[in-house]
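A reminder before we start the practical. When you read a complex entry, don't treat the lines as separate problems. The point of joint prediction is that each chain is placed relative to the others, so the output describes one connected object in space. Small molecules and nucleic acid strands, if listed, are placed in the same frame. In the example below there are two entries. Take a minute to note the order of the lines before looking further.
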Amino acid sequence: MAIAHEFAYHRAASLHEAVEVLTRAGPGAWVLAGGTDLVPWLRDDAVHPELVVDIKGVPGLSDITVEDRVLRLGPLVTFTELIESKLIEDHLPLLAEMAETVASHGVRNRASIVGNICSAVPSCDSGPALLVLEADIEMLSAEGTRSVPITGWFTGPRATVRRPEEVVTGITIPLPEGEHGGVYLKLQRYEGEDLSQAGVAILALEGNRYRVAFGAVGPVPSRAPSIEAHLEGIDLTAEAIAGAKALVGDEISPITDMRATKEYRARMCEVMLGRGLEAAVSRRDGTGPAYGTRLV
Amino acid sequence: MTAIPETVGRSSGRLDGEAKITGRFEYGVDAARPGMLWARLARSTQPHARIVSIDTSAALAVPGVYAVLTGADTEGFVGSRYVRDEPILATGTVRYAGEPIAAVAADTEEAAEEACRAIVVEYESLPVVESVDDALAEDAPIIHPEWESYWVSPIINRPGGNVVSHATLRRGDVDAVFATADRVFEDTYEVPLVHQASLEGRVAIAEVDDDGKVHVWSSHQYPWGLRQDISDILHIPLDDVRVTVTGVGGGFGGKLYAGVEPYCIVLALATGRPVKLRLTREEELTATSPRMGATVHLRTAVASDGTFLAREGRLDYDSGAYAESSPGVVSVGLMTLPGPYRWQALAVDARAIYTNKAGCGSYRGPGAPQAVFAGESQVDRIAREMGIDPLQLRLHNAVRDGDQGPTGQVLEGVSLVETLHAAADKIGWDSAGAGEGRGRGLSCTWWTTTGLPSSADLRLGEDGSLVLVTGATEIGTGAVMAGVAQICAGELGVDPGDLTIESADTETTPYDFGAQGSRTMVAAGNAAIAAASDLKDQMFDLAAAKLGCSPDDLELADGEVRDRDDPDAVLTLADVARLAGTGNGLVGSGTYEQPGTPFDTDSVVGAMIGAFNIPSFATHACEVSVDLATGEVSLDRYVIAQDVGKVVNPRYCEGQLTGGAVQGIGQAMFEEIVYRDGHVQNPNFTDYKLPTMADLPPIEAVMVEVPSASGPYGAKGVGEQGVIGPPPAIANAVRDATGRAIRRLPITAERVWAALRGEES
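Here is the predicted structure of the whole assembly.
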């Protein structure tokens, strides 16, 4: 359907200019990056911006870099670029595995990972992966720059700590020390494009330390501290996995909607946690299933 | 049967192929007229309510708006074809969420949309009938309290209340045969509403000329049916309505009736401007004639050796708020619930029942998937519980030549056993027993080739050009632009590429009963053969006079008329055309109508379809693996073996089998229009899931050829049957893999997971 809502459009030449325009405009302004959420929402009459500030023309925002053992993603880095990046493959293949589950080819070619966490729908695939990678989100405003840890980013469904006049300038991820293995499992209704019914990201580190995060089973993607504490320092035995699964109910609060019931989501989180832990550990140890292998 | 020409049996390209592949092809959504306005519809936000008031003043004030019409302006304009129960704009009562309340024409689609949003409607809510069970309850609200006053097509059996129509089949003494049975199996199955989901939604333009004549351009499957609908609904004389079919971006039965056209016409009449209306995906999924859901109760009596004795069934189809095509569709349930098997006695009741959902319509294989999911799932249960191989049980009970169909028609060209063997061989059925979490399933179907007339004119111009003028519509299958083209060209001894096809327009092309019922290539192909024969007779008479030989000495080949015995006696097509001396060349004409198939008319009541013409048969076989922890079903292999009579174009014939199977797989595993409290919860492709390439194994299609007596060169209709078999084949494979029966579609991971935990699906 045609967009029936009128709004002003500004194509920014730099992020500083974008910030200036956003600051002047106030809370009715939206940032346009890939547009794969904003444009459908406009078309569905679900959002009513007064101004859309397009940052696609700003140069240099698609860079993926590693410096001083910190990986940095520019604000226009798309899911396709994550999948195709040699740096991601070498350092954090978990991000590529996650990116491959997002939507369809066409959407992945446009949609940015920064846009995904700014839209902040509870089922966003980036959330759990960035949570276990302990990413930081960099922002720019008229007052200067600030950096927020991903654990403090999501404040509710479609809500984040970003203020309307702030622009995200990048995501930074400290590369994990030592051998590590990651995994992202996504429960979907079919192999083609689908939104997550439940997502689990896991990072297995040296010394049997684990980071676990869930998506689509609570108002925001979140880490699972009780599961991480339970597994801390122990070998991944059947008993350890069973103990971890028993804690899933404490860490998630799924709802029933037309995609799945809360019971199914909860039980599948247990199944995915078990399979994910085994895969992450065996990837850490160099024996695991190749990244990209579907585990559910 | 005539000799089979060289053009038949080849995977030739289609005449519209290049335009489609290069993006030049013009679909209905691309069409425009000078001075055209855009229409939008304001729709009910309530599933069942009395309209207290409608205020359109703010809508009329929107800049660019030319007209805002409500039910008060369209009083007496009521559809549809079998029961006149559906006003084009609601008057007094809305009966589903999404029902049109007002129609707006404006300079732009955006302005029309803004005006729709500005319309203020005050409702008084009425209780919502959400299911057929609700509708049949003792104290159910009656959705059409004035049902007795409606015009009804005479063949329909109309019990009243919330029951739109009730068709029955009675053959033999069911009670007596059940009394002799060794085993009786009884099950209930449920099938949800699903949508045709053609990529191009419904779209049309209407224009009214100075004399009041209405011209409609529509993406449509059946222009003559549409013309009649328009005349009936809007009380316009038939000869004041012209329908031109645009390019069609998919139909699947969803474009057989009047849909968007009446709104374009009333707005064109109100504004004096051409008006275009195209529907959004959300409108398509909430308000445009999906496939009926159904609850199916089924009892089957079986002898100890597995011989089927009698079957008794009740099909309660969910018609939604309006009858639309449901009275016709339910009678297909009578034909398909028994399946292609021998029976001593049958008793089937099929009803269409009003609920507060979108009125339901026709969708590829209408009425059959619901019945066949029940029938073939239960055949599998019978086999497994009686310890008989499902293939052997089907072979044991399969109809053969000379057997009678469910209504007593004598079956000819029966090919069920051939398709069973073909599918079993392809899937490797003998090595069944795939192991934990893996399973195989079968299903059998039969289907009709709908008759009724097709006509064609074949023009040979003085320049030697050949134009086939047909009322048959090409809706994407290749039936016209490949199949009919190959048949016609072959009869004339030319290449299909030498032919131009003009189709379809109620004023400039001869009648055709429409792209429905798997009939197009069979009926329009036969009409083309008749037209070619007429043209050839005329050509040979003229050529024989010129060449001084007998017409019997002549042949038509390589674009020439020549004397078989005299290599020098040759005329080009242009030469022959000029001999006519008309300036127009020659015109051959032909008409074909499949004679009706006799059946026991006493066996059915209220059935609009009592026999399957030129019946065809198919067997589906598949292999699945099930993740026993998540319930996820992976479709590993899929085989469809279908009797096509005679392959005219292997590529497009296979395309029909494959495409049908894919749509059926969607209905088996993914698709459902989910209603809650009378509102569709998934009016988009985010949550109405269609299968993608990633979800599908290669579909292995086997084209079995058991010729028919009357199709071109023995061809049978192929379009619809493929969609019917997948749900039971996949359910049976899941049962083989897990030991659990799934009795409700779609077979989602969660449903299988629940079944694995012992919960009834």
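Discuss with your neighbour: The domain at 64-174 of chain A is CATH 3.30.465.10 (Uridine Diphospho-n-acetylenolpyruvylglucosamine Reductase; domain 3). What might explain this?
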